What does this fold into?
Amino acid sequence: MSNAESAVTATGFAACEKPERYIQQLASHWSHKMATSYDEGDGMGVFPFSELDNAVMTARHGGIAITLTTADAAQNEHLRAVIERHLDRFAFREAPLTYKWEEQQ
It folds into this structure.
């Protein structure tokens, strides 16, 4: 089984008032550890945690849409918690945010 066949993808949504701001802050914060990118026009941040793990966050009306792909289910759960902790830190006036996650087939 290849890594692509065992990859786990989850989609999530974090309801918040300032999604663009929080994604931009997270991209800046994590840029010290990884090659993040942020597209102001699309309100999209890309976060390559490793060769096998990455997240894409996009500003939407009412919150942040998140797509998280990892090598396995345990890592997916772990990185969900990391994302939530960091977003709550930047959204401290609104925190804790409400997160809804679904695993994709």
User: Anything to note?
Assistant: The CA atoms of residues 22 and 90 lie 6 Å apart. Residues 14-98 form a domain with the TATA-Binding Protein fold (CATH 3.30.310.50). DSSP finds three helices and six strands in the chain. Helices lie at 3-6, 19-30, 73-90.
